[in-house]
Amino acid sequence: MPYSLPTPSLKGGFGIGLLHLLSNCLLSLSLSLLLAIPAKAQTDAQIQARLALATAYLHAELFSLAMLETDQVLTLSPQLPEAFGLKAVIYQKQGRLALAGSFFQKASHLAPRSAQIAHNWGVFECEQGLFESAFLKFELAQRHSEGLERDKSLWMWGICLLQNQQWEAAHLKMNESFQRQPSFISEALVLASLKIQLGRDAEAEKILDKVNDSPSVSAQSLWLSVQLAQRQNQAVKKNHWGKMLGLLFSNSVQWRAYQVEASHD
Questions:
Q1: What is the pTM of this model?
Q2: Calculated CA dihedral for residues 118, 165, 231, 234, nearest 10 degrees
Q3: What is the Cα–Cα distance from 107 to 123, expressed in whole angstroms?
Q4: Based on CB atoms within 10 Å of each CB, which residue in 86, 91, 235, 261 is the most buried?
Q5: Does the 186-265 domain belong in CATH 1.25.40.10?
Q6: What is the pLDDT of residues 199-226, one digit of tens each?
């Protein structure tokens, strides 16, 4: 399961009911084809259905159900690297780190060129502070993928470099990824903050202007724009973003901070 931009969790009530409906639909679909499809294709269809369901459960943080479906996949295909990789991510989310590491190793041994497995293993190692090893995983992931998936790995490589305080290297990776994938705008505040830290104010300003003019606008993005405008002595722009902050996020900590700061001007 490669890294993806945040999606809403499905917890309880309607969300769980929807997942169980998805379960019935996916499995019923594969079972309804049993008479019409050769045995190998039947098994493959069931594997893909259960992998999709396990991934849906994982996104919903229903880890025991995700594990159950993944184990069913391994019953059908005991050496499937995608299933070992998925178990590794489930263990990671459960905080069972030794098991997560072990299953990442098994998955990678079975599919050493899998971009998906390498990406997820890189995320895991970066979280554990194993930066140099994580960088190698991201390098492999982006080398064996293309398009959106490649740029997701490149972005996460940058995030990992950022965690290791390698500012310039992080900027290069994240900026390259963002230039090709404007859809990463909801994640762009990290890059804008990094550009400010590196003294690239004009580049940061362009990113913040795009964020503030998009559905991803937030109290944090507007507050960062206010601070950048103040740093650049742009009084008109500072007032513009301040008014927008009060209009859209009047209950936010950032708006209260802006009011306090304005009272001292």
A1: 0.79
A2: -20
A3: 15
A4: 86
A5: yes
A6: 999 999 999 999 999 999 999 999 999 9
